[in-house]
Amino acid sequence: MIGSLVANKHPILKFTSRLQQEIKFCLKHHGKFQNADACYYQVLIKVHACGVNPVDTYIRAGVYARKPTLPYTPGSDVAGVIEATGKGVTKFKTGDRVFTCSTVTGGYAEYTIASSDDVFHLPEKISFKQGAAISVPYFTAYRALFYKAGARPGESVLVHGASGGVGIAACQIARAYGLKVLGTAGSQDGLNLVLENGAHEVFNHKEENYINKIKESTGEQGVNVIIEMLSNVNLSNDLKLLSSGGRVIVVGCRGSIEINPRDTMAKETSITGVSLFSQTKAERDGSAAALFAGMESGWLKPVTGPEYPLEKAYQAHEDIISSKGALGKMVLIM
Ligand SMILES: NC(=O)c1ccc[n+]([C@@H]2O[C@H](COP(=O)([O-])OP(=O)(O)OC[C@H]3O[C@@H](n4cnc5c(N)ncnc54)[C@H](OP(=O)(O)O)[C@@H]3O)[C@@H](O)[C@H]2O)c1
């Protein structure tokens, strides 16, 4: 119904030109593709780039808590140009450069439909490729640091897994807000990238004794906040790295781990999960305001890593999970 299946290892829906016509028709006449009310506030975007997030692979594989309605096209983080607008849309016009934090029809496509509430203007100085690296990474990093950890200027933060999409974003944001930033990566190139993007100090999480090196750096006091990308590996060590009143924020988790709850007691530390999907509209608007300030003043500079054509989306999904060393955000280019 919505496009032809690309017969690759993983089914990715691709828009056909007939569908583009259908969507334009729908936006014009309200109601063919979505129901009339929804269509009224939607926009059609010509996609130039779309971010690949690990969560896309969990959803595709059916192991994520949220199961999509089928047929399903992945992709929430699109950057592109407005092609058409529903009649109720006042914020955008045809030709505007935009990025999205969610789409109705999926972003791994040449065209996508999004609710205008989920669309933001993309400043000229940010490329489409970079625009596809903003939404999930930066909104998650901001949420983890401020809404969940309550991070304050002058505190220290360990971004445990700093070389990927969320990690680079967390380093840039934390540095801009006056935190002392420690970051980890698993390759020399990754370590360099993390240093270039806000970290004061870096550590290699593939080195056997790197936890001791972090302890040496933070001393008796420990680290105030840990933004954790692989908690099923690191949570037990994280609890030992924290300061009094320290907070671990679980962003990434790919399995279970044994911890000793006693490790939280003497220093009254806490472990808090974060889910971007749980953010309220008010929280999202707050994050957006802070991130737009970062784009204006220049500290928010999305770093993109490997790029793939749309037909290689299946390869991107394999590579993001079995990465040998992240170097910023993975994107599909249309
Ligand atoms: N909770 C939420 O709402 C939310 C939102 C977004 C993302 N996430 C999750 O957060 C995680 C990171 O997302 P992402 O987009 O940044 O992924 P990504 O771009 O693939 O980056 C993965 C990061 O994990 C690092 N890593 C690998 N081994 C590690 C280890 N032993 N200890 C610490 N870090 C390690 C990688 O470092 P090297 O490659 O340099 O080794 C890289 O920095 C994923 O699991 C994702 O599903 C959750």
Automatic annotation (TrEMBL):
GO terms for cellular component: cytosol. It comes from Pleurodeles waltl (Iberian ribbed newt). GO terms for molecular function: mRNA 3'-UTR binding; NADPH binding; quinone reductase (NADPH) activity; zinc ion binding. Pfam families: ADH_N, ADH_zinc_N. It is found in: Cytoplasm. Residues 31-332 form the Enoyl reductase (ER) domain. Its main location: cytoplasm. Keywords: Acetylation, Cytoplasm, NADP, RNA-binding. Belongs to the zinc-containing alcohol dehydrogenase family. Quinone oxidoreductase subfamily. This is Enoyl reductase (ER) domain-containing protein. PANTHER family: QUINONE OXIDOREDUCTASE. Homotetramer. InterPro entries: ADH-like_C, ADH-like_N, ER, GroES-like_sf, NAD(P)-bd_dom_sf, Quin_OxRdtase/zeta-crystal_CS, Zinc-ADH_QOR/CCCR. PROSITE patterns: QOR_ZETA_CRYSTAL (PS01162). The keyword Ribonucleoprotein does not apply.
